[in-house]
Amino acid sequence: MSGSIQDTFFEECEELLEATDEGLTAIEGGDHNPEVVNAIFRAVHSIKGGAGAFGLDDLVAFAHRFETVFDEVRSNRLDLDEKLIQLLLRSSDHLSALVEVARDGGQIDEPHHDTLLAALDEYIPEEEEDLTFEPMGLGGPAPMMDLGGLGGVPAKPQEETYRIRFQPLKEMYGTGNEPFFLFQALKDLGDLTVKLDENELPGFDAMDMDEAYLAWDLVLITKEPRSVVEAVFEFVEGLCELSIAGDGDAEAEANALAALDAMFSAPPLPEASLEAAAAAEGEAPAAPFEAPVPAPVPEAKPAAAEEKASAPKAESGKQEQRGGPKPTLRVELERVDRLINAVGELIINHSMLAQQIANLNVSDTRDVETELEGFKNLARDIQEGVMAIRAQPVKPLFQRMARIVREASAATGKTCKLVTEGENTEVDKTVIERLSDPLTHILRNAVDHGIEKPEDRESAGKVRTGEIRLSASHRSGSVCIEIRDDGAGVNRPRVKQIAIEKGLIPENAELTDGEIDNLLFAPGFSTAKEISNLSGRGVGMDVVKNAVTGLGGRINISSAPGKGSTFTIILPLTLAVMDGMVVSVADQTMVVPITSIVETMRGSDDMINSLGADGTLLSIRGNFVPICDVAGALGLYRGSDQQAGVYLLVETETGQRCALAVDDIHDQRQVVIKSLDGVCGEIPGVAAATILGDGKIAMILDPESIIAASPTAAAFDTERRMSNAS
Amino acid sequence: MQAEVKQTDQEVKHAEHSEFVSFTVATQAFCLKITQIREIRRWSPVTILPHAPADVLGVMNLRGAVIPIYDLSARFGLQQTEASERNVVIVVSVHGKPVGLLAESVSEIISINPDDIQDTPPVDSRNTMEYIQGIISHDDTMVRIINLDAVISAPEQVMP
């Protein structure tokens, strides 16, 4: 039981850490909005609170320091300079590390931990070294929320009366908040009178155990500014109906309203403001106060003052409107996956039904077909819905990558920043999970090998800070992820030399620039002179390539010397379904992904031209394209009565075109992808399998690797390149 | 009193017995522990895997799952089976994955006392030594117990 609660805590931690990262990134980008700082403060505080409940002392201690520094920042006692931001970023990384250690076990990096603690301590004033769990800011004026300067109320401490209407929603109790503790905290601020309003309490028979019926009217007389009073309720924000009306407020509002009145010469409004209206709502017979009525003020204040006074109002209105995040549901991934499988089966089942009906030889099937069409549409709706559940924005992944870049920069002594784009691009969850490792590797490589040392950059006439741009976008049915650095680019002579040293290519090999760049993906290739701490742990970019191809994607590199390199990863939107063309090859039914097909055509003899001993080219409107016989590439043999007469013109990632020769085209339909992982090893030319309408399995072809396996096409490619080179 | 003791003895002895399913592959008798078998199906044409070795017949749709089918006969180095409707596919679970094994026909369920299992005598065939866990004598015929983990090694690489 406690295990599952702890799991929930760690899950929440992840979200909170994400929120922290997000906020810090915003701050790093120059956004010093108090809301952002507050959001981070709340996130860190929640982590601390949860960690305290589970006795995770290291985490609590660190989160506390971290939080305290943030408290200093949000009370404007600390300036967010570059140095502090960097420290906060590193602290946030360390906080994630601590959470990981708490969850998965392992060792915390003690020296690092202590360094950070010491660095954070430098920003914390002496007296705040205690480890209390007061759920609020630690006193002191907080000018940004302070209304004290307005309406003639002096900023110096003065007794002030706040009338607070506090009505918890049932959600507040659900999160374990207790009104009692809030009142206790208020009492510490000054003289507090609490009055319970039980008017809404129904009779026992009508009472819903889970509903919240109680409300309280509080009168607080305190010297503390309004912000401190508000801070008490900070953690129940959105979980209760709250209005805080101070005497000073009423005056300020009255002034502002009077100014407004003077401007528009309208009769005075009975209610002073949104807040006052809310207070009036609670005006039960027992209510100890009346809604503040604006007292007419003779002189009209300048409009600026009015604006100032209404600004915080607008904000509180916004907060009320927000009323907590959209309701979400935590579901085990496995359940969603089961649903996806079931929907996949449903679609297969539909195809089977359709086929069975077609085989029935009934003359009039129109009615059935209409219904079947409806079935198909519904199945597709369900499928899209379920897929949408799995689709997630890449944002958290990208945020983690920012951390990787920071760590890598720190370890190599280089300065780089990560710029992300298209963070809201949604991708299947599995893709996101499995992208994490390859991206980490590419980014480390980019920092380690791509970006130059600051001095070198300067002498090359670039800014000292290297920039790595990580972007995601949807591109016609696939997801494109690009990692672009502005470093030195691929050192081609060196890459080639290493490839020769390692026996990856023959010594006299003539390679194009693109081919040399692609050597980086060759197994066992690593350019680091020494094995550095970061990349070059024996595994190279080939691991990255395998991971990407394992997801049904492709990776490409392009590089310009002195300007940087770009890695482009193209991934399918989902791993579960795709549109395919059903073809037959040597008696076998197969599926070719629609995305790779440019054009289909029925070939006649006069379109086929021989080239060399067994090379054949297809002429299409004056262009010659190599023909690749799918049967031959897959090692299948055609019977004498079978002949390849249909050509699928496909284009590979590198822009190479090829005509795949198949026997016939049957259909174009959405197919459910069944991985062949674990069923058999990698088969050249085959990407995966699917189940067709008749229950039979069909191979899903991978045109790229078929072309690579076909001697004709590959040979033609070489010839063309040689002719291009000469 | 005595009768009761005797009965428990019998029960203990019975519990030691394991049940095996015997079947023929290329006219030889083989068997597998019944707990290893998930189901037995009639042969239906499979989808050919390109570049697959001769003993991998292809893949089959087992209620939505893609499972590979091996020709046991070819696997044992005997002649390839000409699969027909009379043949059966024994679906077993190896390394946590379902796998189909083509056999000529299923014979019966036999109860074997572990003490009766003899070690495979050394013969000049490496495949046999690896794939056969032991042999037993049943109704005057020799039944070979298949070492499933050795026959179907962990997901393997199919080379072109």
TrEMBL record, chain A:
Residues 1-102 form the HPt domain. Residues 304-329 have a biased composition (Basic and acidic residues). Residues 577-712 form the CheW-like domain. Keywords: ATP-binding, Chemotaxis, Kinase, Nucleotide-binding, Phosphoprotein, Transferase, Two-component regulatory system. The keyword Kinase applies. The modification Phosphohistidine is found at residue 45. It catalyses: ATP + protein L-histidine = ADP + protein N-phospho-L-histidine. Involved in the transmission of sensory signals from the chemoreceptors to the flagellar motors. CheA is autophosphorylated; it can transfer its phosphate group to either CheB or CheY. Residues 274-290 have a biased composition (Low complexity). This is Chemotaxis protein CheA. The keyword Transferase applies. It comes from the Bacteria. Signal peptide: none annotated. InterPro entries: Bact_Chemotaxis_CheA, CheA-like_dim, CheA-like_homodim_sf, CheW-like_dom_sf, CheW-lke_dom, HATPase_C_sf, HATPase_dom, His_kinase_dom. Residues 274-329 are annotated as: Disordered. It comes from Leisingera daeponensis. Its EC number is 2.7.13.3. Residues 328-575 form the Histidine kinase domain.
UniProtKB/TrEMBL annotation, chain B:
It comes from the Bacteria. Pfam families: CheW (PF01584). Residues 17-157 form the CheW-like domain. InterPro entries: CheW, CheW-like_dom_sf, CheW-lke_dom. Gene3D superfamilies: CheA-289, Domain 4 (2.40.50.180), SH3 Domains (2.30.30.40). PANTHER family: CHEMOTAXIS PROTEIN CHEW (PTHR22617:SF23), CHEMOTAXIS SENSOR HISTIDINE KINASE-RELATED (PTHR22617). This is Chemotaxis protein CheW. It comes from Leisingera daeponensis.
